[in-house]
Write a structure and sequence with these properties.
The radius of gyration is 18 Å and the shape is globular. The chain is an alpha/beta fold. The strands form 2 sheets. A 7-stranded mixed β-sheet has the order 3-2-1-4-8-6-9, sandwiched between helices. A 3-stranded mixed β-sheet has the order 5-10-7. It contains 9 helices and 10 strands.
Length: 272
């Protein structure tokens, strides 16, 4: 099985540098890195070129012009350009612990899509991370909640319990609950069978959930990875959730679930 680590990014090269460095330190490396760049400026390209020279694995930079939030489009293009059988999808603001790729490969199973949890690093410690050039975790290993970290209960890796506990916790029939796009895995073959991301989703919100709903309707099952395989999500300004565009996308998601849609009419096939 060949693996592709797909990273979505947009004009935050400082974060992308930390993410790439965390990939280079993995206990098990992916076979390639594909960066899905939604129109970043020259600073991001320069960073990728510099990191490519240091990378132990190939890095492919898939870019298109900046024309608003078109994450579905650039991710479809990136998957089409990938060579792996199994796609590990993350965001360019998610630093990986050293066993991330190993954990997700170990959880890969035909007939399933999967995803890990995220640990949100609050603003104060995100700033310290950039100042130090590496992830800053206060009071790491404490039994108490570090004040800079949200969802600290997820900060545990127990390899021998990972599989049984994850399968037990993944019995929910809600296809898009528990998995988000910043840590999501799928077989490339399954992605193509549902025609990838629906490019009707232009603007922020629900594009990942809608893809998962169609994967589920196609006959796949869900696996939410617990006790490992998490990401450290750097804090940044959140997008507004009360716009008419967001509500429109939410309605489209609900329609896909209710009608058990499988195929995206406007999807990845045009790039294959």
């Amino acid at each position: 099985m060949k693996t592709t680590l797909l990273i979505a990014t947009y004009n935050w090269p400082e974060a992308l540098k930390l993410v790439l460095e965390s990939i280079f330190r993995q206990t098990v490396l992916p076979d390639e890195i594909v960066i899905a760049d939604d129109g970043s400026g020259p600073e991001t390209k320069a960073l990728i070129d510099a990191m490519r020279n240091r990378s132990p694995i190939p890095i492919t930079h898939v870019w298109h012009e900046d024309d608003g939030f078109r994450l579905t489009v650039i991710r479809n293009k990136a998957v089409a350009a990938s060579k792996g059988d199994y796609i590990l999808q993350i965001d360019g603001d998610c630093i990986l612990p050293t066993h991330y790729v190993e954990d997700h490969i170990n959880m890969a199973k035909p007939g399933y899509y999967a995803g890990g949890k995220r640990i949100r690093i609050k603003e104060e410690w995100t700033k310290k991370t950039f100042e130090r050039g590496k992830l800053y975790l206060p009071y790491f290993g404490s039994l108490f909640q570090p004040k800079g970290i949200k969802k600290f209960a997820r900060l545990h890796r127990i390899p021998f319990l990972m599989k049984p506990y994850s399968w037990l916790r993944s019995r929910s029939k809600r296809p898009h609950r528990g998995i988000i796009g910043c840590s999501m895995d799928f077989w490339k073959e399954d992605f193509i069978k549902v025609n990838g991301y629906d490019e009707t989703f232009i603007g922020w919100g629900h594009e990942d959930a809608e893809l998962l709903a169609r994967l589920y309707s196609s006959g796949l099952k869900k696996c939410v990875i617990h006790l490992g395989g998490f990401v450290y999500h750097l804090e940044h300004k959140s997008r507004a959730l009360d716009s008419e565009q967001f509500r429109k996308l939410e309605r489209h998601l609900q329609e896909s679930i209710e009608k058990k849609r499988v195929w995206a009419e406007n999807g990845v096939d045009k790039y294959l």
